[in-house]
Amino acid sequence: MLKKLKTTAFVALTMMVVMPAAAQDLLADQAPIDRKMRAVDSIQLQKMLESEEAQQSPTAQLYDDWNNMYVHRQTTLPDSLLIDLRDFAMPTPSRHITSNFGARWGRQHKGLDIKVNTGDTLYAAFSGKVRIVRYEPKGYGKYVVIRHPNGLETIYGHMSKHLVAENQEVRAGDPIGLGGSTGRSTGSHLHFETRLCGTALNPALMFDFYNQDVVGDYYMFRKATYNQESIVATRLRGVGGQGGEDNTNYAQLAQQQKQQPQQQPTRNNRQQQASSYHKVKRGETLYAIARKHGTTVDAICRLNRITKKTVLRPGQILKYN
Questions:
Q1: What is the pLDDT of residue 233?
Q2: Residue-wise pLDDT tens digits, 84-93
Q3: DSSP character for 203?
Q4: What's the pTM?
Q5: How far apart are alpha carbons 223 and 130 in whole angstroms?
Q6: What phi and psi, each to the nearest 5 degrees, are found at residue 68?
Q7: What distances in angstroms separate CA 227 from CA 18, 36, 39, 101, 250, one per listed residue?
Q8: How many Cα atoms within 13 Å fall on the side-chain side of residue 110?
């Protein structure tokens, strides 16, 4: 029995010694094929995941078409939408806002103006796909429109040069153009817009240029409270502001707004509520505003972090007490 086992072991060992050459050749031939198939499988899997993610993104639900013709065409605005701000880049490292979102010179200013020099690099705020690259001599000048998976579209105006093409995929932080003063512009700056379904939203609700950051991981857009939120954001992060955290309880604010018609505040209360801020009119000076509200120019400058030489703009909001 022992002799039989030895014989069997010898035969098996002999086969292992004789066969490896052919087996190794087969494995060697098969290995590149296996690696190639794994790579193909990985690429296909990645494409499938990206396709599923795109189909489930807010953009797929909010926009019915893709075109390179219209800068912004208003569609149905959702009552609320949670906008993901996590994968972001600041469009410019400049911290200097020169003009707020809102009323300006008798018309609505749909974005923020940020001071940049001609030739400064501008960056995509989020990953997405470039929808429009164009020149508009009486408006945006050389501009770029990017649609993002989080539901937003961002617009970058008055560039001196485009660095991307229409239908190009970009990542957050990719260079998309150079700063300039093309189109309807009085000096080199970036006109930056954030739009949802074609409607302009105040970028200060999401971007804090002074601190070079977004305001949080997410921004909850609510149609019912948007206007009040926009005013607060401008006070915190607009011209003269130095950024800050918005601690407003917007759910509570919305409830207060619903109850407001029933509260019937007194005339004195209304005056007190309106006495904290002043909206600058065309031709007004710091001295005229100070006299109107019974305060001093120094106090207004201190509250708004400006100087006596600061040029006031119509629509600008100043705190005076």
A1: 92
A2: 999 999 999 9
A3: G
A4: 0.61
A5: 27
A6: -110, 20
A7: 83, 55, 50, 12, 11
A8: 16
Please count the other Cβ atoms lying within 10 Å of the Cβ belonging to residue 204.
28
Retrieve residue 42's tokens.
């990985």
CA distance 181 to 196: 26
Amino acid code (one letter) for 76: T
Q: Structure tokens of 26?
A: 């087969």
DSSP conformational letter for 88: B
pLDDT per residue as tens digits for the range 161-220: 999 999 999 999 999 999 999 999 989 999 999 999 999 999 999 999 999 999 999 999
Structure tokens at 236: 């915190």
Dist CA 264 CA 166 (whole Å): 53
The pair of three-digit structure tokens given for residue 212, joined into one six-digit string: 């070079």
Q: Which of 184, 160, 159, 164 is nearest to 174 (CA)?
A: 164
Greater pLDDT, 124 or 291: 124
Are residues 79 and 152 in contact, defined by beta-carbon separation less than 8 angstroms? no
Give Cβ neighbours of residue 154 (< 8 Å, ≥ 6 apart). Answer: 91, 124, 125, 126, 128, 145, 146, 148, 192, 193, 194, 195
Secondary structure (3-state) at 135: strand
CA 321 to chain centre: 33
The amino acid sitting at 132 is I
Number of residues that make up the chain: 321
Joined together, the tokens standing for residue 74 give 């208003």
* pLDDT band with cut points at 50, 70 and 90 for residue 38: low
Contacts of 246 (CB under 8 A, 6+ apart): 215, 229, 232, 233, 236
List C-alpha distances in Å: 61 to 65, 76, 108, 197, 217.
Answer: 11, 11, 28, 11, 21
Tokens representing 91 are 């469009």
Tell me how far apart the alpha carbons of residues 172 and 90 are, in angstroms, rounded to a whole number: 9
Question: In Å, what is the CA distance from 76 to each residue of 64, 73, 81, 195, 223?
Answer: 11, 10, 12, 13, 12
